[in-house]
Amino acid sequence: MIEALFIALSPSYLMYMTIGILLGLIVGTLPGLTATMGTALLVPFTFALPTGEGIAMLGGLYVCAMFSDAIPACLVNTPGTPAAMATAFDGHPMVKQGRGQEAIVAACFSSALGTMFGAACYLLLAWPMISIALKFGPPEFFWLGIFALTIIGSLAGDSILKGLAGGAIGLLISCIGISHATELNRFTMNIPELRGGVSLVAALIGVFAVPQVLSMVLGLRKQEYIAEYRAEKGVILKTMIKVLSKPIHFLRSASIGSFIGILPGAGSPIAAIVSYNEAVRWSKDKTKFGKGNIHGVTASEIANNSAAPAAMIPLVTLGVPGSSPAAVIAGALMLRGLNPGPELFATDGVLVYSFGWSMFIAGIVVFFVGLLATPLLVKVIKIPLRLLAPLIMFLAIIGAYAIRNNIFDVYLMLAIGIFVFLARRLGFHPGPIGLGFILGPIIEPSLVQALYISDAVGVQKIFFSGTINITLISLSILSITAVALSRFKARRAAKLA
Amino acid sequence: MKIKLETIFKGALATFVGMSMAFTANIAFADYPEKDITFIVPYSPGGGSDQMARRLQPGLEKALGVNVRIVYKTGGGGAVGFSELHRSKPDGYTISNVVVPNVILSSKGDGVGYKPGDFEYIGMTESAVGALMVPKDSPYKSLDAFVAAAKEKPGMLTVAGVGGTGADRWGALADILGIETTYVPVSGGVGKMMPMLAGSHVDAGMTASNHATKHSSIVDALVVAGTQEVGTLKGVPFEPEWSYVTTWGIMAPPGTPADIVATLNAALNEAASDPSVADTLGKAGYNTIIQTIDEVNAFMDAQIKAYE
Predict the structure, then answer these.
(1) Is residue B132 helix, strand or coil?
(2) First to last CA, chain A
(3) Fewer CB atoms < 10 Å away: N or C end of chain A?
(4) pLDDT tens digits, residue range A220-229?
(5) Is any Cβ of chain B less than 8 angstroms from the Cβ of A327?
(6) Which residue of A lies nearest to B58 if distances are taken between CA atoms?
(7) pLDDT value at position B46?
(8) B55, closest residue in chain A (CA to CA)
């Protein structure tokens, strides 16, 4: 493993990894260009390199995109990839309060720490962690999805009913297309493009970017900039101390992130959501979340970054990628005639470990690249809205098109965008709708599979037995009860006052 | 004099236009290809079709002398990419992966807009047969043990497969074996099935044999389809009556001129016969295929008939 560290520290590894990181900065910042897409586009270029350097470059891009997707999430309330949705909940309010630099530095520092934690798990705990992850079958995934849904309680804003309705709308839209099990057309209205389902990325751009642009345009006469912003001295150090002053918060977010990153099919977006939910639950003052709490940003960013290296764990232990970008990296290895899986430890052990070290080092490089880029990036706030709104719209359209090279996705994004804009005026929060989109593809197939299995073994045994199921069900009930209690108390307090 | 000059001018112009038309026509038919070719991959990056495209890309570029650009048009079990190709100009500058029987099965959906017989097929390059596999620590060490257990408790054993296509294919084998089991559809491909097998959440899984080869550290194959042993799965029995074969190849839009199809076929065969390509395929548990245009057309006709 030490030998692998020296290889990962060799100049050529560092150079290509840094190139990957710089590309990741661009890919993550632009909504629509996801880490999956970025790695897939980069794969052909890595063929000119030796395998180790090639995958270090891909790994660098992946982890940096998991940081840089926070930049548009904070600045313009549009997550750069689905993984940054929870970052926007507190990141954007921070920017609005004039704390733009603080938000980006917090995202950057917590991303760096998260990446290093995830890489450490990959290097040290790959086998014990995967043996726990394998205990997750269809019913466990179903309950995990339900548990993640309970975050609606802390997102819903004034009306819990509107929050639930928003989540249901999101889940329903995620059902559009050919059904997973029986291949029935659902809500496709004879439009061939809908058969493949609504693209998650295009839908999220619709939910977040389009309403943002529309409200910018509507507010133009009242407001010329997104927010006030002045560069402050010493913000970097102060922010780092703020992040470091909560070690338990860090450990919780990073453990959640790494563990959910390992589960094949769950990935960074769910890691960030669950981690944010837990941050709210364990906080003493829950009301501060969603209104610019720095720990909302760090919870999401620590988790989605630690999930990235962790998603490589099932790849090297089982030969199964834990996320879509990990699948692309697996493809890149297979094209070189390497078989990603446990045999790789025996045949190319140095490669397996040097990749882990590369991701660890990538965490450090991301921090410095992020710090250097921050002063430049926060200048976005200084762009007047009359220029910024068309710019965001332009990027949104390119992003929605780029994900599948399909103009239909652009129309869909605009339609969803206008719908969410109107819904927002009626008091709906866009968060639950986006949450439904992300969780639908986890909850539905696992529910269907679990129901099929229950034909053989019985409903009670499949859904309501086993430690993980019971734990997840209890946590969900706890979550819902806590929200109900706090709302009840708040209402009584309001009545008394 | 003036009139004469004009006539000469007109004549010269006509000759020029005629010549340039002949010249462009010449380029269009004899000198194909003269610009980059777009290669549609109808499935996600990193998947089987993407790997096939990337494996053949350098050989195709070398044989054709132009760049081959890979684009992804995913969704609808391949239907989105196939219908995109169907709508493309038949000039040989847009080609796509084809997976048989997926292209036939996906065309049955309403509103897809293509028939498998419409396309110009360039050639098939590899195939894999079906395999039934169990986790390494499964109590069923052989096909006989699995069948005996399934007969003892009908419907109690669970078998995972990919989507509705998998259900049909598993149904065929279950009928041959005379057993009754519970089928569990997995969405999102084989990548999701392997963790379910590794964690023993289902009793068995059924998919193409190349996956049994790739994941030989997680699963053991019990039986494969076809009339012969699979090279990478020595000692695994085969079931001649089970006709589950998946074949990968390349196709062009309907109406692509025959000489362009011939050029592409020659380039594809050159790319596919590269020793490194054949070696990778062999190790991964595929059968390598090299076909003439007549062979691929005969193959497709037979396949379309078989699935009608």
Answers:
(1) strand
(2) 63
(3) C
(4) 777 778 777 7
(5) yes
(6) A44
(7) 65
(8) A335
**Which of B201, B203, B232, B283 to mutate to probe the A interface, most A CBs <10 Å?**
B201
Contact present, B72 and B45 (Cβ < 8 Å): yes
Task: State the pLDDT at residue B276.
Answer: 84
Report the SS3 class of residue A203.
Answer: helix
Nearest CA in chain A to B187: A180
Domain ranges of chain B: 30-126+247-307, 129-239
Angle between helices A247-262 and A126-133 (to 10 degrees): 70
Q: Does domain B30-126+247-307 have CATH number 3.40.190.150?
A: yes
pLDDT attached to residue A155: 79
Among A435-444, B17-26, B166-175, B287-296, where is mean pLDDT lowest? B17-26
In this prediction, does ipTM exceed 0.90?
no
pTM: 0.85
Name the CATH architecture for the domain at B129-239.
Answer: 3-Layer(aba) Sandwich (3.40)
Q: Which of B111, B192, B199 sits opposite A192 (nearest CB)?
A: B111
Nearest to A320 among B50, B164, B195 (CB): B195
Is residue B16 over pLDDT 80?
no
Q: Are A330 and A54 in contact (CB under 8 A)?
A: no
* Residue bearing tokens 């949104």: A396
Indicate the domain borders of chain A.
2-496
For A242-293, write each residue's pLDDT tens digit: 999 999 999 999 999 999 999 887 788 999 999 999 998 888 877 788 889 9
Q: Give me the residue from B74, B160, B198 closest to A318, CB to CB.
A: B198
CA dihedral (A339, A36, B207, B302) positive or negative: negative
Nearest CA in chain B to A343: B217
B30-126+247-307 shares its CATH topology with B129-239:
yes
